[in-house]
Every structure is written in structure tokens, then in C-alpha cells.
Amino acid sequence: MTSETRLFIEPEDLLGVEFTCGHCGARLLYQLPKYPVRIAHTCPNCNEAFYGAEKRTNFEDFFALLTAMPKLTEGSKLKIRLQVKVSALEEKRA
Hints:
Helices cover 27% and strands 17% of the residues. By secondary structure, it is an alpha+beta fold.
């Protein structure tokens, strides 16, 4: 017999998105479902760029999608869940 552990989360379970500065380690949390008025381009602690200006639209689209996901299934029988890699969680616990 084969056993498989799978982990899924529903969009409603997403609480926020955290940016961690690769330079100084400072963290910035954007709480969902609030769509950030302005997504930080640079670290508020050390002013190091989080990403290039050419990716700003990608980040805006990402946050818009995360905010819209819970609303996609309202009034329907469809359920959306995101699969999370279980081994990544097990590594964090160790």
C-alpha cells in the first residue's frame, strides 16, 4: 500500500504575504484581503531594492489575484485550493 501526504489551503486561509529583505533581513507583511495601496519597491529598513521596476506590474497582478481568489467561487459550487509542498513544511519544523 502506498501513502501520500498532501496539503492544501483555501484562498480564505491566506492571511498575508511577507517580504523579507535579502540584504538586511527586515520583514514587511501585507495583510490580505486588503489590497496594498502601494507595494514597497525598496526595503523600509536599508533601502535596498526588493525587485526591479520592470516587475512592479507583476507584483500588482499577484496581489490583485490573491485578493480576488476568495471571490471567484462565490455563488458557485466550485472550490479552489492551493497545494503546498509538504516537504517544505517538514523542513521548517526540523
